[in-house]
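Support reply, case 0932

Customer input (verbatim):
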Amino acid sequence: MSRVINPNSAGKERSSMTRAIALAVRELAKTNPSANAEQHNEARDLAAFIALALEVVAETIEVSVVAWEKRDYWVKADKFRMEWRWAGQLAAQMRTAALNEDWGSIAQVAMQVAMKLQNIKISDKHRMGRPWEGSWGKLA
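Our regenerated output:
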């Protein structure tokens, strides 16, 4: 019997989510939440999306590590957890800041996320669309 390959692995999900987060952070940097109601709602959606997407990324870490631990690759598993620990921490900070609409904290957390994801390149003609639309309703 041949191997069963899951095309929707945790690694692929983490990769697509980090690309979407990087795009959302860049869009958030362009918005001014105090300019008008439309930009305010856009900024709330972006902040909420970043928080929710970081939570998804944090959840995929354990899924990836389980396979290594089954093979007794404990050092590799622990190193991977330490490399991605920031995702869960920044997700909690962004969730709190977004729910309180603390734009100073949102900007600070977004900058930290941008530093972690600075190597991700997204072309101007990407096909991701606007995945953050409606995220405020899911967060609140």
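We compared this against your earlier run and they match. Two observations from our side: Residues 10-118 form one domain. The radius of gyration is 17 Å. Please reopen the case if you see a mismatch on your end.
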